[in-house]
Specification:
The protein has about 270 residues and is an alpha+beta fold. About 15% of the residues lie in helices and about 30% in strands. The chain contains five helices and twelve strands. It is globular.
């Protein structure tokens, strides 16, 4: 599925707002991008507010996923449809309308399928979550499910010049290089498709930007995607030119005790 997206620049990070029963996805997207926050900047500090300064519990994100016990979860099928692009202090790409990701059974223990509709996505230079494989870049795809829950799909990349250019990073770079006010399509299907093919972690944490809202479901690929250092550097330069800070990562948070359940999901083949 291919969607046409408009790349928009803005100066602050916005928080996803779960949609209420009967509220359209389009309205929840509007809430996502219009929710006002007090000004804040990187690195993390007093400008982030008291909510971000609290230590767990409840669990804050990101965390070191190489140092937690994991619970196997093998009964998951992930079906993805995707594409898009737009911006904030992390240069948020905005979907219109959002593509959907269906996970069956869901992660709420009921066995019901959960359909996650993408509200937007942004990149972090260097990694926020810690996984094996020396990651150098992290993509956060923010979504809302049909019951109002918020989830983030995280894909990480590691530099390997033998791997060549990554199509997702290349598409994002092309969208930023387009003339002002032009409509550009960026396909996220390749990135989301990986959650149906490769193991990933799942846990409940928080947003990694103010106001650090808790109760956010995270899906984090277990292994980073390999791409050339030039692919990472070129996209990052374009994001910085649009206003993204050179160091836009939140420090790893301590893991709450008792440790929250962290699933290691092996998708069905």
């Amino acid at each position: 599925m291919s969607l046409a997206l408009l790349c928009l620049a803005s100066g602050c990070v916005h928080t996803p707002v779960p949609h209420e029963a009967g509220q359209s996805v389009a309205q929840s997207e509007a809430d996502y991008y219009s929710d006002a926050l007090a000004p804040w900047t990187y690195p993390e500090g007093p400008s982030w507010g008291e909510a971000c300064a609290k230590q767990p519990p409840p669990q804050q994100s990101p965390i070191d996923l190489t140092r937690v016990a994991t619970t196997p979860w093998s009964a998951s099928s992930v079906i993805t449809q995707a594409t898009f692009d737009g911006h904030d202090q992390n240069v948020v790409f905005q979907a219109s309308p959002g593509p959907a990701v269906t996970m069956a059974p869901g992660v709420d223990g009921s066995g019901r399928a959960l359909v996650y509709t993408v509200a937007g996505f942004h990149f972090h230079y260097r990694n926020e979550h810690v996984i094996a494989g020396n990651p150098a870049y992290e993509l956060h795809i923010k979504t809302v499910d049909q019951h109002g829950g918020v989830a983030v799909f995280a894909v990480l990349w590691t530099a390997d010049d033998a791997a060549g250019e990554d199509p997702t990073l290349a598409a994002a770079y092309r969208s930023l290089s387009a003339p002002p006010d032009s409509v550009v399509a960026v396909d996220l299907g390749r990135a989301l498709w990986r959650f149906g093919q490769q193991p990933f972690y799942s846990y409940v944490g928080s947003l990694t930007t103010p106001p650090c809202t808790t109760g956010i479901r995270w899906f984090v690929l277990q292994k980073p995607v390999r791409t050339s250092s030039a692919s990472i550097g070129r996209l990052n330069s374009a994001l910085i030119a649009r206003g993204m800070p050179r160091d836009n990562v939140r420090a790893v948070r301590p893991v709450a005790q008792p440790q929250p359940v962290v699933y290691l999901v092996t998708p069905k083949k």
